[in-house]
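Extended Data, panel c. Modelled sequence:
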Amino acid sequence: MTSQDIKKTIVDKWMPLFFGKTKYREEPMCWLCQLVNAWEGTCLACVICRETKQRGCYGTPYMDWRENPCRETAREELLFLLGLYRKTRKGEIK
């Protein structure tokens, strides 16, 4: 999993949600989830799981977004993923 995979999730899913180009439940599945499911079907291979030490995106703003899908919670997830993108680019997370 690379920084480009995180970028694809940001661009394909979260930016459209934040900017109102896609509605809740109409957005594409997270690219990171698609990769992990194709590889082994478990979150353990996901960079998010390695960062939070939790499966299923627990410990991220995504869980707040699931409870309250609005622009603010989409923004929080975007910021989280951008931070993860930067850490991955710097080699702090592999």
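The two ends are 8 Å apart (CA to CA). This feature is highlighted in the accompanying rendering.
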